[in-house]
Structure formats: C-alpha cells, structure tokens
Amino acid sequence: MTVIQYEREILVIDAGLMFPEEEMLGVDMVIPDISYLVENKDMVKGILITHGHEDHIGALPYVLQQINAPIYGTKLTMGLVEGKLKEAKFKKSVNMNVINPPASVKIGSLTVEFFRVNHSIPDSVGIAIHTPLGTVCHTGDFKFDQTPVDGKIADLHKLAELGSKGVLVLLSDSTNAERQGYTMSEKVVGVTIEEIFSKAKGRIIVATFATNIHRIQQVFDAAFKFERKVAVVGRSMVNTVNIALSLGYLSIPKNLMMELDDISKLSKEKVVIITTGSQGEPMSALTRMAMSEHKKVEIIPGDTVLIAATPIPGNEKLVARTIDHLFKQGAEVIYEAISGVHVSGHASQEELKLMLNLVKPRYFVPVHGEYRHLIHHANLAKEVGIPEKNIFIAENGRVIELTKDSARLAGKVTAGKVMVDGLGVGDVGNIVLRDRKQLAQDGILIVVVTIDKETTEVVAGPDIISRGFVYVRESEELMEQSKEIVRQALAKCQEEKITEWSMIKSQVRDTLGKFLFEQTHRRPMILPIIMEV
C-alpha cells in the first residue's frame, strides 16, 4: 500500500495482503497497519488499484470497513475486488469505478491517469497522479511484453509522453531487480505447454496461480488443439475462471469445459485438469491430490503434472514436498526448475532501465520486493544517470516529502503488520506469537494448588498437568520432584507472610522454571492456578 498526500487530499494505491511467515504460528494472513489513514479518513479521496493480485487487493475488505472511499480500477480488477468483498460477506455499499485505460479521472483537485502495463494478470495498469507540484508516477507490478497473449502491449507512448512533460517522482517495481536481461514473454510458456500436451499419454494436471488468466487461456487453447476436455478444480481457480469468463477475459470454445464428475468418464488421454496449489499450500487441491486426500481426484501412474509457477520465497519447502509426493504416486512432474513452464510477471534489469529512461523522473523511489531488491534497483537508476542524492530507499512507514525542487525523508508514520487469525484482526501481536512459539517449542505445565483462605496453608495439591513438555508416565520422578519444589516455594511464601496471589504465582513460576531448566534445559510455559477455600 502506498499513500500519496497533497495538502489535505490523500490517494491510496493498492491495499494488499501478505501470507504469514513461518514464525507467525496460526496466523492466516497479514495486512497493513492503516492507523494513519484512519486518523485522516476525511482526507482519503480514493483507492486506486493497479491489478487484481491478492498482494494488491487482499486487504480491501478490512480497509473498507474503516475507510469508505471510492475505488478505481480496470474491469477485471473490479470484478475480482467484487468477488473478494462477496466472499468476505461485506455488507456496506462500495463506490466502485471501472476505468478503461488510457483514461484519466479527476479526484478532488488531482488528475489521475491510468496507463496499461503488462503483468501476469490481464488489465494491469500503472498510475500517474498530476499534482500542482508535479507528476507522481507509480508503475504497479509490470514487465514489457512485446507479444502478450491478449495482444495489449504496455503503453510506451504514454510513458514517453509523461517523461517529455516531466515527472517529479517515479515509484517503480523492484521485484526482479536482481535478474539480468529481459523477462521472457508469456507466449513462451504457451509453446512449452503445447509441447508437453503433444507428448503426454495420460491425464494432464496443470497447477498455476488462479489469477494467471493468460496462462489458463493457453492451457485451454492447447487442450482444444489436442482434443482434450478441461475440468477446473479448487475454489479460487473456479471463482477466477467464472469471473474472467463472464467479463470476457477468457475465450473458451463451447463444450471444452466439463464438470469434474463427468470428466472421470472420459479416457485418460482426453483429460486436462486445471487446479490451484502451485505453491504447495497444505489445503490446496494439488497438495490434497498428492497426499491422496482429494475427494474426487486421485493421482495415478501415467499422469503428467505440470506446475506452471515458481515458488514464492519461503514456499520452496512446501512445493518440493508436493513434488516428491506426486512422484511417489507415479506421476511425471514437470516444474520450473527443469523446464520453461513459467515466466515471471516482473521486469528484469534492462526493462527497469527502459522504464527509467522513458519516464526520466527527477526523483526515484524503488518499491515492491525485499530490501536487497530496492538496493539493486537504486544501483540501476544510478547507472542510467539519476543522481544518488535523488534516490530514496524507504522502509514501511517512511514519509518522503517533495516540493517542486526538493525531496527529503521526513519522519515516519505508524506502519507495520496487522495479523489476521480467524475472525480476529490485530488481536494477535508479538506477545501472543511469542507465547505460541514457546508452547510449540517447550510445551506447558499447569500447577494447581488449593489454599486455605484464613491460614494460607496448602489444603490440596500441588497437582501438575503437562502438555507438550514431557510424557508424564515416563517422567514420574521429575513430576514428583517438581511438586516438592512447588511445596517449598509455597512454604517460603507462608514463612514470609506473602498473601498476594500474583506474588505467590510469580514465586512458584520462577522457582519451578529454574529447577526444570536445570533438569531438562527446556523452558516450558508454567501456569500456576491457585484456588481458595
């Protein structure tokens, strides 16, 4: 999410989510902290969406709960946003504006231009915001594809025109800033898919991102060419295909698509299944097939499984595990590491330089990707002649203040990660995660003691319940010693006339924790429960 503010007007570009990192135990997704926008909600004039990927639209159901601003985006993007809001059972009415690029709209006192770029989802745009101080240009996620599947190439004319009129600052996609050369055209994947289809003897199962509509189109084209029928599996894949079909972004010959139940009646060499699960997500259709847990599809020897996606950083283990299980089931698996079944949707170094040279910005801010990608992109900008003092690498929450002829880093606003766990938004923070981590690593001990209210003597207990720490039946001696340690701690409290519950609990926790660490070198969570009678 990027926030552009001119005087008392704010425009927001994108509102995406992030999938949880490994240490975020139990967290479903991560969304941006929008405290700054909530504090200034009267100034938010519009939310501009560059394209329909989850990391750009995923937080909208949460953001729109608190900020009721109009949304602007292309036809497919708006279709996907609508689907997202419906899925989230969003009740409020949302002012949605469909843009057909090249187009410009007036929002408040600012003029916003949308121009077409190529990416791994159709209808992707970059955005130019014209302010009285100069033009702010945001590329969105982009690459320059000279032969896109839908024939809609990036609007190089508009970029050159913006450059010739003068751009104050460019914010450009850095995801592939480490990759040399050019990113290959999506059409290359179509050729590979056809080649695989021509050789496959049994069923073909294709896993890809649900939103990669160009790739899905190429799978349908190859199926039609080689006289196979297609079934679509996986909730997000079915939703996206239906939305893209209804809006005219997929063109599928009549009777080519079939229901999964009907397709099982066909002979194996007539079948193609398109599914989700290219990232090895545990609950996805492909992973369930690999683990023999899918209700309707079982992997059988002779199947060709094509994983037409590259693992997102952090997902490599999950993907590798899925591939291994597919091989174990007897399938032939074709994946990115050994074939050309995936090309990136992001610009490589030469295209990033081309963007910089076309737009010719005075100031440059690399965005998207990890910190190292921003550094690489900044170096490319220096290579094409942008002075180092005019390049700003900003972390989340940093404010970059621009005037007609100056720019500087100007403090910070509240920013960061808000974790969503089930229905709870933001109620899981670092402390909860730390507790979950401790529970996962060393388990929990519950110490239950009953104390006489008048004399503070122990009436019953201490009893110790252990979960995830040691197996009680095999550690009876340790448990007995632990009870003795608790008795001693309670006796000490009685001697010192400590009657404050929190003090007693703290004494039990500290003494027992110290003893258990000496014995086991583990630090379980210790919960003392004291009852009075």
What does this structure look like?
With 533 residues, the protein is an alpha/beta fold. It has 16 helices and 24 strands. It has helices at residues 35-39, 54-57, 60-66, 75-87, 156-165, 187-199, 213-225, 235-247, 260-263, 285-290, 316-328, 349-359, 371-383, 430-442, 476-495, 501-520, and strands at residues 2-6, 9-13, 29-32, 44-48, 71-73, 96-98, 103-107, 110-116, 125-131, 134-138, 167-173, 204-207, 229-233, 271-275, 304-307, 332-334, 361-367, 398-402, 407-412, 417-421, 424-428, 444-451, 458-467, 525-532. The protein has a six-stranded mixed β-sheet with strand order 7-8-9-10-11-17. A five-stranded mixed β-sheet has the order 1-2-4-5-6. It has a five-stranded parallel β-sheet with strand order 13-14-12-15-16, sandwiched between helices. β22 and β23 (458-467) form a beta hairpin. The longest helix has 20 residues, at 476-495. The radius of gyration is 29 Å and the shape is globular. The mean pLDDT is 88.
